[in-house]
Design brief:
transcription regulation; 5-stranded parallel beta sheet; phosphoprotein; Arc Repressor Mutant, subunit A; 11 helices; Rossmann fold; Response regulator protein VraR; 5 strands; 2 domains; NreC/VraR/RcsB-like_REC; globular; alpha/beta; 215 residues; single chain
Length: 215
C-alpha cells in the first residue's frame, strides 16, 4: 500500500517540526507539506494531494475553522483532523460540523496521533461516543426541528442505521444488532450520508444528537 500523505498546518514552527519528526518516522505516513496559515492550505492541497490534513484551530490570518470549512466544501477533499488544546470546545464542534473527521489534543501521546491519522485515512472516525456526548453537552442546544425534519426524510431502516451511528456503533456492531451483513450496512450508511448531504459519520452522529433522536 502507498503511504498515507499528510499535510501539517500549524502556525508554531516548533510544533510543526515535532509533528514532522514524529509522524514522518512512521513507515506508512509521508509528510508531504507544511503550512503556517490556513490561507496556504488550498494551494498546498492542490500541489501535494494529501490524504489527511492535520489542522490547528487557532492561527493568525485564516484560522483552522475557516480553512476546514473551505477545504471540505471542495470536491475530493482530503480528510481533516483538528489539532486543539481543549477537549470540549465550541470551535471543535464547529470544525466537526464543517466536515472534520475527528480531533486530537496537542498533548496526545505520539503513538495515538499516528493511530488517529491511520484510522482517519482508513475511513474510521476517531471520536468515541463519550467524546461526542461531551461536545454536545458543551454546545448545550435544545433539539433542533430542522435536524428532526432531515432525519424524517429517511426510511425506517435508514433511520435505524443513523441512530446506531449516533450511538457510536461500528458497522460490524450495527450489522449484528440489525441482522444485516456488513456490506449492507456500509451501503445504508453511504446512502444516508448522501441523502443528508453529509461528509462523514461524525457529521451524521452530530445530526442525530441535534435532532434529540437518542433522548
Amino acid at each position: 500500500m502507498p503511504p498515507i500523505k499528510l499535510l501539517l498546518v500549524d502556525d508554531d514552527p516548533l510544533v510543526r517540526a515535532g509533528l514532522t519528526l514524529m509522524l514522518g518516522g512512521a513507515d506508512d505516513i509521508e509528510v508531504v507539506g507544511e503550512a503556517a496559515d490556513g490561507a496556504e492550505v488550498p494551494s498546498l492541497v492542490v500541489r501535494t494531494r494529501p490524504d489527511v490534513v492535520l489542522m490547528d484551530i487557532r492561527m493568525p490570518g485564516v484560522d483552522g475553522l475557516t480553512a476546514t470549512e473551505r477545504l471540505r466544501a471542495l470536491p475530493d477533499a482530503p480528510e481533516v483532523i483538528v489539532l486543539t488544546t481543549f477537549h470540549a470546545d465550541a470551535q471543535v464542534l464547529r470544525a466537526l460540523r464543517a466536515g472534520a473527521a475527528g480531533f486530537v489534543l496537542k498533548d496526545t501521546p505520539p503513538a495515538e496521533i499516528v493511530d488517529a491519522v491511520r484510522r482517519i485515512a482508513a475511513g474510521d472516525p476517531v471520536l468515541s461516543p463519550a467524546v461526542t456526548r461531551r461536545l454536545m453537552a458543551h454546545a448545550a442546544t435544545a433539539p433542533r426541528p430542522a435536524a428532526r425534519d432531515r432525519l424524517g426524510a429517511l426510511s425506517d431502516r435508514e433511520r435505524d442505521v443513523a441512530l446506531a451511528v449516533g450511538r457510536g456503533h461500528s458497522n460490524a456492531e450495527i450489522a449484528a444488532s440489525l441482522h444485516l451483513s456488513v456490506p449492507t450496512v456500509k451501503t445504508h450508511v453511504s446512502r444516508v450520508m448522501a441523502k443528508l448531504s453529509l461528509n462523514n459519520r461524525v457529521q451524521l452522529a452530530l445530526l442525530v444528537h441535534d435532532a434529540g433522536a437518542l433522548d
